[in-house]
Design brief:
five-stranded mixed β-sheet; Ribosomal Protein S5, domain 2; alpha/beta; 131 residues; 38% helix; 23% strand
């Protein structure tokens, strides 16, 4: 069972996640986790909300967009297999997001999920269940 990702796009969704006050800051990103109800999707898929934001402190529009693209690419690798379902997540870009090596950015994301107790141990990297 893979987690289906839906995008958080509206300000109240971002504020609800920030209001949970659960976050972890890593060198390449900040991850916030909010509790949401589990929604049964198609078949046995569960979903989680995922939002991305990068402030103007990071740089001009080109730099902010690059940071968001890098966060989206890393999240596509990590979240479907390892994110706990039924929660909403917000990834916040930092200045280091743009220059950080991509494998390190992915590890930052995995570490943040583990530290916030949102890591799913029952999935291997190839997507098969382990028990």
């Amino acid at each position: 069972m893979r987690v289906a990702l839906r995008r958080l796009k509206r300000r109240p969704e971002f504020l609800r996640v920030a209001g949970s006050k659960r976050k972890w800051a890593a060198p390449g990103l900040v991850l916030q986790v909010g509790r949401d109800h589990i929604r049964e999707g198609e078949g046995d898929r569960l979903d989680c909300g995922l939002g991305f934001t990068v402030s103007r402190k990071v740089g001009m529009a080109v730099t902010r967009n690059r940071a968001k693209r890098r966060l989206r690419a890393a999240a596509e690798q990590v979240f479907p297999l390892h994110a706990a379902p039924g929660r909403d997540y917000v990834l916040i870009g930092r200045k280091a997001t743009v220059d950080r090596p991509f494998p390190d950015l992915v590890e930052d994301m995995k570490t943040a999920l583990r530290r916030l107790d949102a890591w799913r141990e029952d999935w291997r990297e190839d997507g098969e269940e382990t028990g």
